[in-house]
Amino acid sequence: MSTVGKCIVFAILILTTSAPVLGQAEVERAAWSVRYDEPSGSPLRVRVTGQRRGGRDYTTTEYTLENTGGKVIWGAVIAGLPHLTHAKWQTTIGLAGGGRQYGSAVQDQAGPSDHEWTVTVDLVLFRDGTSWGPAATPEAGFLTGIMRGMKEAVQETRAALRAGGDNLRTFLKGPQKYPGLHAPMQMNVEEGLAAGYLRVLRELRASLDSRGDTEGIDAVVSGFDREISENAGDGLKYITQRHGIRDPLKIIEITQGSHKLGIDQSYDGGAEWLRGARITVRNDSGKTINYACLSLEFPETRATGNTLQSDLEYGGPSPGGRLRPVDQKPIGPGQVFAFVIDEKEYSSLKRFIGSHQPVESLSRLLLSIDTLIFADGTAWMTGAMMKQDPADPKKWCRPVTGNDGWLYEGV
Predict the structure, then answer these.
(1) Contacts for 404 with CB less than 8 Å, ≥ 6 apart
(2) Which of 54, 121, 36, 40 is nearest to 87 (CA)?
(3) Nearest in space to 379 (alpha carbons), one of 102, 16, 5
(4) Nearest to 239 by CA among 272, 270, 260, 266
(5) For residue 193, which of 203, 174, 205, 179 has the smallest C-alpha distance?
(6) Could you tell me which residues are beta bridge partners of residue 267?
(7) What's residue 211's pLDDT?
(8) pLDDT value at position 8?
(9) Separation between Cα atoms, residue 255 and residue 274, nearest integer Å
(10) SS3 for 226?
(11) For residue 234, what pLDDT is reported?
(12) Coil, strand, or helix at residue 378?
C-alpha cells in the first residue's frame, strides 16, 4: 500500500476556525496551564494531551475527544482552549468508546504564561439530532444550524426525486435558496443553516455536472442521510467522487470484471465489492503526467476513529520515492490510463481497513485526485499547482505573485 505523504490524515467535514501550521518542527514545550472542567453527565470527555511550540510563533494545544456515552456523536463544541476568543466546533467524533485526536493552533499572544485556561464542553450533537449541553456559545448555534441545513437539503431533494420529470434537475440548477456565506463566517444558526444546506447542494450539483444526468443523485443523498440520521441504509454499495475545481483527471469508467460500476450509483457488490476494481481516467490537465495518485477514502470509518484512506498509484517517481514500473508509461494530454485494485492492493487494503472495520461492512468509497507530477517539473497536489524547487528536487512550492512567480518554501 502506498505511503505517499498527506496534508490531511483524517477528515473534519468542514474547516474549523483555526488550523495547525503544517511542516513545522517542535522547538520547545509551551508553558500554558490547562485544566478540564468536566460537566456533570457529559457524554464527551476532553483530554488535553500536550502542547508544542512551532516555528513562526505558533503554539498547538493537542487534545483527544472521547465519546463516553451510548450514542453516536456527530459534532461538538469545545470552549476554553488556550488563547482562543471563540469556542471550537468539529464534527464526526463517532461511536461510544472511541477517541479522536485534534489540535488547536494559535499565534502566540503577549501576556503571562502562568494563566490557567479552563476547557469545557458546551454542546454535544448526536447523529439522531438530539443534543446535550448548555449550548451557550455562538458556535453551538452554528453547528446545530449545519445539521438542520443538511437535513433540509436532503428532504427537499427527496421531494424533487419523488415528483419525477424535470423537477430534480430544475431544483438542483435553480436559484440558490440561501445567500453566499460571509467571509469570515458568522457564528449563528442562520449561517450554519446556509453552510449545511449548501454543502449538500454542492455535492449534488457536482454529481450532476460530472455525470451529465441525475441517475447518481439518489446514492449521494443516501450517503448524507446515513451521516445525519440513524438510517442504516439499504445494504447497497456505492462509489462517489470528491470533485474539485477544474479537476485535471476525469473518471470515465469503473469496472469490476465484466460489471460496470457507475459513479454515484448504488449497486449490490457483495462482500468482495472492491476486489479487482479498475478505475479508468482521462488526462484533462493539458500536460504529460509522469506520476498520479488517487485517494481512496472510507467515510464510514469515522465512526470508530479517524477516517481511513489509502492510495492507488500510477507511474513515478513519486514524492515518496516510488519508482516508475516499466509497464506504466507517461500519459500525454487526452490519453487514458487505469488505477487497479489488484490482488496485492486488495489484500493490503483489506488488512489495513480490517484492523478497524471489516471491508465488507462498509458501503461507501470516496475517490479524490490527490497528486499529479508532470513532465515539465510542475505538480498538482490536493487542488493546488506546485513547482519543484530547482535547488532541492524533494521540495515543492506554491505559486505566488512576484519574482519568477513561485515561492520556494516547500510543502
Answers:
(1) none
(2) 121
(3) 5
(4) 266
(5) 179
(6) 237
(7) 74
(8) 22
(9) 10
(10) helix
(11) 61
(12) strand
Angle between helices 189-211 and 138-163 (to 10 degrees): 40
Angle in degrees, 0-180, between the axes of helices 217-227 and 138-163, rounded to the nearest 10 = 150
What is residue 266's three-state secondary structure? coil
23 sits in the region (left: phi over 0; alpha: psi -120 to 50; else beta) called: left
Question: What region, left, alpha or beta, does residue 134 occupy, with left being phi > 0 and alpha being psi -120 to 50 degrees?
Answer: alpha
Range 39-67 average pLDDT? 79
Give the full edge-to-edge strand order of the sheet including 99-107.
Answer: 44-54, 58-67, 99-107
Closest CA to 380 of 258, 293, 310: 293
In the structure grid, which three cell numbers stand for residue 259, read together?
Answer: 460489471
State how far the Cα of 88 lies from the Cα of 78, in Å rounded to an integer: 5
**What φ, ψ does residue 217 adopt, rounded to 5°?**
-65, -40
Contact 188, 89 (CB under 8 A): no
3-state secondary structure of 76: strand
Q: Spell out the SS3 assignment of 172-208.
A: HHCCCCCCCCCCCCCCCHHHHHHHHHHHHHHHHHHHH
Is the pLDDT at 200 greater than 50? The verdict is: yes
- Of 73, 62, 124, 132, nearest to 98 by C-alpha is 73
C-alpha span between 269 and 276 (Å, rounded): 12
pLDDT, tens digit (0-9, with 9 covering 90-100), for 218-250: 888 888 888 888 765 566 788 888 776 678 998
Q: Kindly tell me the sign of the dihedral angle through the C-alpha atoms of 326, 332, 335, 340.
A: positive
Q: What is the pTM of this model?
A: 0.68
Contact 199, 187 (CB under 8 A): no
Spell out where 57-163 has E strands. 58-67, 73-79, 88-94, 99-107, 116-126, 131-132
SS3 123: strand
Quick one: which H or E segment has residue 164? none
Q: SS3 for 389?
A: strand
- Give residue-wise pLDDT tens across range 137-187: 999 999 999 999 999 999 999 999 999 889 999 999 888 787 666 666 678
Rounded to whole angstroms, how far apart are CA atoms 75 and 352?
26
